[in-house]
Every structure is written in structure tokens, then in C-alpha cells.
Amino acid sequence: MSLFSCIEIHSAPSPIQYRREYATGLCCRISPYRGVRGINAHIDSLAYQYEAAGCPFCRSQIFEATEPFSDGEWITRGESVTLPNRYPYADLHTVTIITEAHMAPSFSARQLSDALAGSATSLVDYPGYPSINWNFLPSSGASLLHPHLQGIADPMPTALCMRYLEASAHTADGDYWELFCEEELHGSRHLFGELLGEEPVWFASPVPIGECEIRGILPVRTIAEFLSITDRFATDLERIISLYRGLGFYALNMGIFFQKTGSSGERGMHAFSSIIARINPNPDAISDSAFMERISGEPIVMTLPEDIPGYLNP
């Protein structure tokens, strides 16, 4: 039996799809025609800028403008620097500056891996549910332009993670993602990665929670185990960013979710990642999040998940 439902209605000038994931109750509406409005302002590239006046994350200012951890140190990995968040909204909330440059036109796998490792290291000892998150560019919700990750950990999981923990608890082996991969692997939404348990496996999400959502199922369960695969994850993430840019998207949101720290890592839900494209910054400050997304909890997206693999491998 399918894990998802899809109902299509024909409302001129184009069809609309209502999709639902049975195990979690997540719903979305897909309206491809909305994309013809051209609300995603085109930008050719992001201008390289090594330093910016007043930016606390630029290398000339960071160690004076920010506070270290309680041991008096910052976590450094390559170009990345990790530190406590001055304005937290989690029991443990850290920030990882990804690049020395205030803005660069692209990210290397090395830069991404170092930043992911720094963020994970800052959370690994917290006895709760950690996640690593990224708002890239102001239209995604980033309050500072300088690229940075946010690591959070709390005694309880975030709402999305909770949905999949609960779905996993109702499966025979305690892992919803095993069922998901069994149904989706080599299907019309499969992107790349073949062997769950050995490598990340990536899909265009069947019931997307945002534009062009890509869902990654990781070969680990805990954030401690994640430290061993940051290189591979970063290589895949670099590929996904390139996919988005090929479609004209620069801004994005990402979350990586793990089992509770202290779990054995041998059973239960695999860690997973959700990445969504956001509209580019533009003078009108239009956002692609409105009442349906933030109040009704049903994101309206413009791209069919089944079309995304074709964009990756044209």
C-alpha cells in the first residue's frame, strides 16, 4: 500500500494536486501554474565580498564581537568557527560561520563539511534531540548575510522530527525511513544514493513541505555518528545546491534531524535531512511563505517532485 495519497482536480488554467503522507498527516498543495508569475527574482550570482563593515561574523571582528564557550574557546574547523548563539531559542543553540568570506559565489564540499562537523561537535554532548539548520540569504529568514549554520538541541524533538519518530514507533522495525526507501528507491522521485545504511539516499519529497523539497535519509541515527559522514553529506549537499542554482534558486532552508543523544544508534529512526528552495532576495521583499504555509500548515509549491530528478540529470 502506498505511503502517500494524491488527488488531482482540474481548475483552469492548470491542474492542482492535494497530497498527504499517511503516517505523519503532512499535507501540501501543488500548483505548477503559480510558477509563471515570475515572483522569484533572477540573480546571476552572489557578489564576492571578503569583509563587510559591522558584520560580527567576519574574521577581523568575530573573536572580539562574539563570546566563546564556557571553556573560553571557539570551535574551529577549517574556515568555520562555532560559538554560542547570543539570541537563543533552544536550550542549547549554537552558530557556525561557514566561510571566512562575508559572501562567496559558491561553497566547496570542504567548507560545508568543516562547518557541519563544527556544528555537530557543539551539540554532541547534549542529552536531548539535536538538529543542524541553515537559513541561507534573507529571503530564507537569515538575519545576517554572512553564511552560517544554526545548531539547536532540546529535551524534546522539533515538530517535524517528532512526526517521524512517532511514525517510526508504529512500524515493525521502528524506522519509518526503511518503509519510505523501500517504496521510493529507483522510483520517479529518487535522485541519488543507493544503499541506506552505507550512504545518504536522496529523494524529491513526495509531499513537499516547501518548494523543491529534497529529503535525505542518512546512514546514521545519532549526531555522534554523523561526525563520521560529514564529508559525504557535504559532497551531496554541494550537488543539491548546484541543482537549485540551475533552477534559479539561491536561497534555501535546511534541517538535519537525529535520534536522541544517548540512543544506541543501532535501531530506530535513521537521521534525515530536509532541504527546500526559497525565492531569491528582491527589492519588494516578497516571501514564498504566506498564510497557507504558516497558518494552515499546508505549503503551496510550484514544482512537481517527479520533475526534479530530470533537472538533476537533464
Task: Explain how this protein is built.
The strands form 2 sheets. Strands 4-5-6-8-7-12-13-11-10-9 form a 10-stranded antiparallel sheet, with helices on both faces. The protein has a 4-stranded mixed sheet with strand order 1-2-3-14, with no helix packed on it. It has one domain: HIT-like (HIT family, subunit A, 2-Layer Sandwich). It contains 8 helices and 14 strands. The mean pLDDT is 93. With 314 residues, the protein is of the alpha+beta class. Helix content is 22%, strand content 24%.
Summarize the topology:
Blueprint: E1 4-11, E2 14-21, E3 27-30, H1 62-65, E4 75-77, E5 80-84, E6 92-97, H2 109-123, E7 129-136, E8 148-154, H3 159-169, H4 176-184, E9 190-192, E10 201-204, E11 214-217, H5 223-226, H6 230-246, E12 251-257, E13 272-278, H7 291-294, E14 300-301, H8 308-312
Parallel strand pairs: 3-14
Antiparallel strand pairs: 1-2, 2-3, 4-5, 5-6, 6-8, 7-8, 7-12, 9-10, 10-11, 11-13, 12-13
Helix pairs in contact: 2-6
| Count of structural domains | 1
N-end to C-end Cα span: 31 Å
Categorize the overall geometry: globular
* Helix-strand sequence: EEEHEEEHEEHHEEEHHEEHEH
Q: So, CATH architecture? A: 2-Layer Sandwich
Radius of gyration from CA coordinates: 19 Å
Task: Work out the strand percent.
Answer: 15-25%
CATH superfamily: HIT-like
Number of helices: 8
In the predicted model, the low-confidence regions spanning at least 5 consecutive residues are none
Summarize model confidence as the mean pLDDT: 93
Sheet with the most strands: spatial strand order: 4-5-6-8-7-12-13-11-10-9
Which bin fits the share of residues in helices? 10-25%
The third-level CATH topology is HIT family, subunit A
| Class based on secondary structure composition and strand pairing | alpha+beta
